Structure prediction request, 311 residues.
Amino acid sequence: MSSIMITGASGMIGQYLTTSLLHKKHRVFAVDSKPNDFVGTDDNYKFYQCGITDKKSVSEIMERNHIDVLVHLANSVDNDIDSMVTDKEIKQSKTTDKYIYSEAAKYGVDCFILLSTTDVYGLQKGREPIRETILEKPITNYAEMKMTSEKLMEKAMKKSSCKQVIARVAPIYDAEYTDNLHAHVFDQKENVGYVLGDGDYGYTFCCVYNLIDFINGIINVPQGRYDGVYNVCDSKMTNVRDIIEYEKERRRIGAVIQKPMGSEKTMLFNKSKMRADYRYFDPTLTYYNWSFDNTRAKRIAPMRWSLNNTK
Prediction:
């Protein structure tokens, strides 16, 4: 049984992770500005209601309790903040970065898991899956924010014995939360779903269960030998036709039109909004490389979940 601290504990990912950890009898120290349904339900669950920029409160949790693993989910769009990443969110993330890594090292946290994003790679061409060693090219506010968090963690913990794990996670989904999937098959201008040509293309996403399995895999290694950067995502790309059928079955998408290949270049999208809005997908980017190599992560978790078995 380990002591796990979760920031952003009331977000979607935070609640999935809490359920899993409590089931495995771990002690959970949860931090969020909003309460959740776990409060008062389990003796192994302690909730602290405070903002993530509240250095005093967050540091006291680490000081008063030996934390084996700190899972930093706060300041993440698929967990606890809106898809619009503006100066406010960037400032909050930087304020957190200024203290949380050094405090974790100071109070003897054994392992620090940072939730980052595959968006840090930006736009990559070629057919080879994108590996963790490739040069990052962030082009959105969110990607740049997470890239900054990664670099500041590495700098702050350079001389620390704390194991640093950076989980670069593809856009998240579960059976009910499919906003990230939906954005890649929906024409906002015409208010319809669409597929280009015969639909023989797809994107890489991450079922939330794969992420939870990965985090559990890190926690369950007693030697704590796993550290570094990991691409956490489904093992196969998700075809756009599968997304459309999935959404149709659940009545979350209506009319769907087939557009000829090349028509994506005439679909008007707001480039500046795409930079700020995490889910604002530009269809002209459809044929870039959206395949990520998750070989390293699969050594820790099987990545067995996909859209086909997510119910």
Q: What stands out?
A: The chain has a mean pLDDT of 94. The first strand starts at residue 3 and ends at 7.
